[in-house]
Amino acid sequence: MRVLAAMSGGVDSAVAAARAVDAGHDVVGVHLALSRMPGTLRTGSRGCCTIEDSMDAQRAANLIGIPYYVWDFSERFKADVVDDFIAEYSAGRTPNPCMRCNERIKFAALLEKALALGFDAVCTGHYASIVTDADGNRELHRAAAWAKDQSYVLGVLTTDQLAHAMFPLGATPAKAEVRAEAAARGFSVASKPDSHDICFIPDGDTRGWLAERVGAQTGEILDRDGAVVGSHEGAHAFTVGQRRGLQIGTPAADGKPRFVLEVRPKDNTVVVGPKEALDIALIAGSRFTWAGLAPADARTPFECEVQIRAHADPVAASAVVAVGPTGGDELVITPHVPLNGVAPGQTAVVYVGTRVLGQCTIDRTVSAVPVAL
Q: Quick check: is 48 catalytic?
């Protein structure tokens, strides 16, 4: 097969590209330039897609012996990931930019271009596995190394995208094995730190970054009964479950700390309450997709597990496609035990065993605790 290897400049994508070559594929490496003004050097393990990363990727491609190119996807990245991130926070939701990047850049924009150029698949360094069932249908599954499993952030992939995806690291039992292989191949990135945090906010100051783009506007902090207990300088700076940074002038009657329960951007208010009020009994989203074949009858409740963060533990649940409050279909997920601190805008990924069945962007939640405590 002709394979386009997405090379970020990290150890995982370098080894994935090398394994694709070892498997006999005709491989071309490509680095995605996602910023118009990339930093020259990384700051520790923060950020990615810098000039240094591009050079690291090129050195790896040269050692592997494959052609290497840099493609400018900065405009698409800004529109589909960065602007979406700002819009979601402005609407009071908590987005996951890594999900949007995989959905709209790596397996939409990049895959579209790859197919147009005659490639058969896009190869990445994600830790996930693709399994083909007895009827030839492709399924997305967790990686062998659960501690490194990245199937959650790939939950947005569709059946068509899975048909052209390749994850050579999926069966690798440990990240240490990948680093050892990289060192044996002579890759300079063998000991390079993993990137983390939001790549376009390399200093990690999400609140300050948003304030510059959304602006600050003083608003009220309310308790669950609607009483004013403090003030803030911009609702966009808060997310559900947050405890630190609350400027509350009125202490709670029980003396316990309070947490952000809801962000209301329309009237620029933030609702706070006790920790137990963060328990969620139901989540639902109208923006849902299936990774591979959909359930035979999704309108009949089925048992599954749900994961709401990349590194969260899966929770046993039941799910069903049903008509929501606005009249459209929703994927409704009811965990067997309440989830904690779930915010609209997050992604809920549904699993059956190790298989990723599908996902939804959470539009609404139902608290497990009534208002009157």
A: no
Strand 259-264 and strand 228-232: pairing? unpaired
Residues 282 and 269 in one domain: no
Alpha-carbon distance of 51 to 35, in angstroms, equals 10
Pick the catalytic residue: 101, 123, 304, 360?
Answer: 101
Distance CA 129, CA 166 (A): 8
Do 91 and 133 lie in one domain? The reply is: yes
- The active-site residue, picked from 48, 199, 304, 360, is 199
Low-confidence ranges of the chain (pLDDT < 50): 40-42, 45-46, 372-373
Phi and psi dihedrals of 318, rounded to 5? -120, 150
- Write out pLDDT tens, residues 102-112: 889 988 899 99
- Note whether 259 and 282 are same-domain residues: no
Domain span holding position 102: 2-185
Strands (E), the chain: 2-6, 26-33, 68-72, 121-123, 128-132, 138-142, 165-166, 219-222, 228-232, 259-264, 269-273, 279-285, 287-290, 302-307, 315-323, 329-335, 339-340, 347-352, 355-361, 364-367
pTM of the model: 0.88
User: What are 9-51's pLDDT values in tens digits?
Assistant: 999 999 999 999 999 999 999 999 987 655 544 455 445 667 8
Per the structure, the count of domains in the chain is 3
Domain contains 265: yes
Whether 199 is catalytic: yes
The two structure tokens encoding residue 121:
């698949």
Instruction: Say which amino acid occupies 17.
Output: A
* Residue 318: strand, helix, or coil: strand
Residues 27 and 170 in one domain: yes
Binding-site residues for ATP, please? 6-13, 32, 125
Domain boundary at 254, 273, 292, which?
Answer: 273
Decide if 45 contacts 193 (C-beta within 8 A). yes
